[in-house]
Design goal:
Number of helices of chain A: 9
Number of strands of chain A: 8
Shape of chain A: globular
CATH class of the domain at 3-119 in chain A: Mainly Beta
CATH architecture of the domain at 3-119 in chain A: Sandwich
Oligomer: homodimer
CATH topology of the domain at 3-119 in chain A: Jelly Rolls
Helix content of chain A: 40-55%
Order of helices and strands of chain A: HHEEEEEEHEEHHHHHH
Structural class of chain A: alpha+beta
Largest interface: A-B, 24 and 24 residues
Largest sheet of chain A: 4 strands, antiparallel
Strand order of the largest sheet of chain A: 1-8-3-6
Distance between the termini of chain A: 47 Å
CATH superfamily of the domain at 3-119 in chain A: Jelly Rolls
DNA sequence: CGAGGCCTTGACCGCGGTCAATGCCCGTGG
DNA sequence: CCACGGGCATTGACCGCGGTCAAGGCCTCG
């Protein structure tokens, strides 16, 4: 069953969980299938759920003067939610959109809280995920601060070589903090080599 | 005594702690006085301690092609460490430098681990601090991605109006991802208004 | 008083943003 | 089945922000 394998995957990839913990996760979580371009969270809502991507991909974006700015991508085996909203219980500045027809594991905040209280290993895992996210953000700051548009694009390709197959270039551009036009020119240069 | 008031401050500012927890922190922590320009962590070391700034200020920086790039400032009532190193047990990419003659509360990682295991409220507080740091970093990404040099400087002034009194402009410039010259020109413009 | 840090100022220029036209692909309806 | 329209990407012309390089000013401290 899909739910069991998803939980197993989480335990393997993030933190080894006891069988009792895995069982409780399985009892609390749901598997849901979502179609391309559907929204998991809308701006202004309070994000109630954390999603783990079993299959597919998603992104968080916000509107800045009406422009769509991608803030975060999540692919298979990543977690995604509106972090501001989920952790601080404030209205989400982000939309979360599913980019492809996807299968997600969904955990409510209430369930996560209960699981954290009951299972030390679950709480540890949560800590670890937050810490890693923090370090990733820090890395991204370094990248944004001192790299050229081209370097930033190449870094992204190093991490996600096939991102251009699944993702609109305009979303990638705003994620990198550059314009669509600049990204297009960079890609042209690279293809000529 | 200084130690007791520092712990009280932490409890007030970050998360309400039980008296038992505060007592244990006081038993585990040390107050240390450090002179200006001393280093708390050097590049390549593994950061063993978390510091809370009772008085003074500090910064984390790294060397990029020999240039000093400020990554983080910490002022009174902030915590500071080399986050990569401290949380992941890897050699620090950062130096941590005390900017003024300062008084710090120091907690070793071993003590923090013990306190987290013993006191649920302490662990919660740790979680909260990490989460808030994560959200701050995320905010900084937005700022770096789409703001002009001037906007970034003004944002910093909103948060730390008196930062220029304590901090070299060259450190501020590298924190904002701009050059010292650009910062100087921005400041000139502002002073003429 | 001289030296060395730190900051300011000026001249120059290139990366990447903006605006606008064009190309390309695909879904929909006549 | 083709024609049209809309969304996305490409390309070109232009230009301004902010980087680089270099000179000079201003403290502070020995």
């Amino acid at each position: 069953m899909e739910l069991v394998t998803a939980v197993e995957k989480i335990s393997e990839l993030y933190f080894p969980l006891s069988q009792a913990c895995k069982n409780d996760i399985e009892a609390a979580a749901q598997i849901i299938a979502i179609e391309k371009t559907n929204l998991l969270v809308k701006e202004g809502q309070i994000a109630q759920n954390m999603y783990f991507i079993c299959k597919g991909s998603a992104r968080a974006y916000y509107l800045k003067n009406g422009k769509d700015i991608t803030d975060w991508f999540a692919f298979e085996n990543d977690f995604i939610t509106s972090i501001n909203s989920f952790f601080m219980d404030i209205p989400s500045p982000h939309f979360i959109e599913v980019n492809e027809n996807s299968v997600l594991l969904k955990l409510t905040k209430a369930n996560i809280t209960k699981l954290s209280e009951k299972h030390l290993d679950f709480e540890r895992m949560g800590n670890l995920i937050i810490t890693k996210t923090m370090l990733q953000l820090q890395q991204r700051i370094v990248s944004l601060q001192f790299e050229t548009a081209q370097q930033k694009y190449e870094n992204l390709l190093d991490i996600h070589p096939d991102i251009t197959l699944k993702t609109q270039l305009s979303h990638i551009a705003s994620y990198l903090g550059i314009t669509l036009e600049t990204l297009s020119r960079i890609r042209k240069l690279k293809s000529r080599i």
